[in-house]
User: Fold this.
Amino acid sequence: MPGRNSTEVTEFLLTAFADHPHWGLPLFAVFLGFYLLTLLGNCAMILLIRRDRRLHTPMYFFLGHLALVDVCYSSTVVPQVLAVLLEGGVVLSRARCAAQFLLFTFFASMDCYLLAIMAYDRCVAVCRPLLYVAIVTEKARWVLVAGAYAAGFSSALIRTVTAFTLSFCGNNQIDFIFCDLPPLLKLSCGDSYTQEVVIIVFAVLVMPACILIISVSYVRIVLAVARMRSSGGRAKTFSTCASHLAAVALFFGTLIFMYLRDNSGQSSEADQAVSVLYTAVSVLYTVVSPMLNPLIYSLRNKEVKDAVLKSLSRLKVSGRF
Assistant:
């Protein structure tokens, strides 16, 4: 780029809310609380699913993997966010930035695929209840999950390699809380056409494909539930579907905003406003969404409530002896 210092960047300085340093400690406390709740909720869900035989079903098999991915997803980003907020900035080497970007992209992709798989699983359970056991077999579950892991890692590896083949020069400061592609593209001093294409391919092929599967699945669920004679069954299923769709909308809506927004040059004031909004939106899908998933997908279910009560009763009994 004309006028930009041609010095090659070998490390990045991550900063966030540099114009509002007094936000650091309050946000540190909020994000730490969210992170601890994310670990507690998702780890508790994994333990419940492993310990209680009533939860050894396909739905909770997929939910267990979603909880595991959410723990890893948050742990890839949030500890560094806390360091940025506490210290006012963190210096990362190019290799460390690339590693974080790879893991972050991998777990974000896994969330997309697992949400789609869980929607399909619920669709089969509601629309084809008599064939559910024959369709969603143990082998089918492992094939779906293994395929999701393979697809997620492949797309993450491709995006990481293409992103970090760019040349970065001049200012090494990233006004963001972790290494992500849109902020990195602003530091590139070469042709970023290939990387822009990768963003579009990811946004146009991966996300809409998952959203399409989820939408079709829940439309079929709604149509099947509408034909139910029991008003209580209809109300329960519609309530569950609404909460699930809220979680899907939160996750995919923020991802679409992040990767389809305009990255062209703007005025400094407009750029600062967009940067703050960009950071706030990223918090929704990296911190808030993983924290809410255990509540949305499980605590509304009677099986999970019973498992929690059973575990608590065991703790009380063991505490007496």
Summary: The longest helix spans residues 94-127. The beta strands are 11-15, 90-93, 173-175. The chain has a mean pLDDT of 78.
